[in-house]
Amino acid sequence: MRRGTDFYGEESDSWLVHLWNFYAAVISPAVVWLMVLFKSEIQLEAGMRVSMLTFGALGIFIPLVIFHLKYEFHPAISVVGTLSFLAIFVRLAVYFFIQRYQAPLTFWGVVVVLVSGAVWSIVIECNHTLTWHLQDFPQNEWLFPCSHNVYNQRFYKGMWLVLLVPGVIFLFLF
């Protein structure tokens, strides 16, 4: 029997698992839309900054992956690592990714993405059902919507595509 499943093998339909899948369906398209916003706020070629924005916004999950999901260290180590990465990435956002006065909307969008990622890392650390759900999937797949239920998988992947495709199109147009 898989972890995160009940006696009959059905996935536990925890509201937190659904909320995680919703967040995973929104987070990567939000980063793409932040890149579109950044390119429209800054009227110069900022390819390196845009790629660093992507890494910085999604890199907040690195301590969670290394300390908790991969090596299963004590939860305090993962939480401290997540909070340190949050502090470092917010400082980098102020200093390097976006100057606050040139692109204020993108700056605050990145801060919201970083803080929400840190909060989700701590929630995953504290909730065993969500941790078990995420450990059922390969390491590079759980950041996207993932479910054992086919209907939930289709719904969240469809929502992810509906949000992502226009962002990618606008990214190449601007």
Name its key features.
174 residues; mainly alpha; 7 helices; flat
Task: Point out poorly predicted stretches.
Answer: 4-11
Determine the N-to-C terminus distance. Answer: 49 Å
Percent helix: over 70%
**Rg result:** 17 Å
Description:
This protein has 174 residues and is mainly α. Helices cover 72% and strands 0% of the residues. It has seven helices and no strands. Helix 2 (47-58) packs parallel to helix 5. The protein is flat, with a radius of gyration of 17 Å. It starts with 14 loop residues before the first helix and ends with a helix. The model is unreliable at 4-11 (pLDDT under 50).
Blueprint (SSEs and pairs):
Layout: H1 15-41, H2 47-58, H3 62-70, H4 75-97, H5 104-126, H6 128-135, H7 150-173
Helix pairs in contact: 1-2, 1-5, 1-7, 2-4, 2-5, 3-4, 4-5
Briefly say what this structure is.
It contains 7 helices and no strands. With 174 residues, the chain is mostly helical.
